[in-house]
Amino acid sequence: MVLANDQRAQLEALYAEMLPEHLTPLWESLAELVRPQPRSPARVQRWSYDVARGYLLRAGDLISAEQAERRVLILENAGLAGQSAIVPSLYAGLQLILPGEIAPSHRHSQCALRFVLEGDGAFTALDGEKAIMRPFDLVLTPGGQWHDHGNPSDQPMIWLDGLDIPTVRHFDASFAEHLSEKAHKETAPPGDTLARYGHNMRPMRGSTADRRPVHQPLFHYPYAQWRPALDAMARSAEVDPHLGHALEFLNPADGGAIMPTISAHVRLLPAGFETRPRRSTDGTVFVVVEGTGTARVEGQDIALGPRDIMVVPSWHELVLLAATDLVLFAYSDKAAQEKLNLYKEMNE
Ligand code: 1HN
Asked: Cα(347) to centroid of ligand 1, in Å?
């Protein structure tokens, strides 16, 4: 805006007078408020699993899971300091549960996913039904459902938590409560829901509607199912130039994203493959499941190794280069953006 000196002075005087009335001029901030394209405050970042794990295990010596309620190190984006956010809409954390520990039952408005990184045999119980967690399993705890965790195995268990905390905060819509008992009473044998809804089938009679919400029955997507599916796809399908071989996790109730605010997928990039450049409005959290490679984000190279975690904010150009076969898990707020008609991508 080009303004004459005296006009500027008079406007500044006006702003100063209005300020106590909580009135501010749109014309001074319009260009900043309505951007021609996204300019995320979030930064591109990678967390080395080994470094984060070291700190998490040290926290494990100092505070119990029960004391902490959830023993988690937040992966906080440097561009969003103090917001407990990895991208403006989403949260990420690394949770540790040691042998014999429990994390008590609670429920809240926020939706969560767990992606197992280490250990075998701990569980998440959802409304009293356990999902036994194995490496690289995806487990959901959708909003409003009671959940507790326990580790009856003899190994530490570490998983990535992905939640829509900043989204719920944005809408000022957070409710939470604790169960009076530490663990929910068992309502079904482990794996019951997976057997009924995890194979493109659903019960004809003996509906679980009294126990599982009809709109969101399935909450366990085992590695033992998704990994062979990805392999079969890689053997038979032509590789997508932007994504590699990619499969999205679905809610069997409606064929849509796993939860109302969060989408998740896995992909396999064959050794030597380099993706075409792509950008999308859903800032995305990636986890390396296996292999090594490089992420080139806006021309900046980030080395990727097993279990590393990387965030690529909205509208950053991403090229992935696979040194070996590279398998990635990813989650984003695409599900929420599509509902709001905001989602866009650009594939070069
Ligand atoms: C939560 O419920 C869990 O259940 C983990 O494991 C992390 C962070 C904020 C709010 C709720 C869990 C969380 C959380």
From this structure: 35
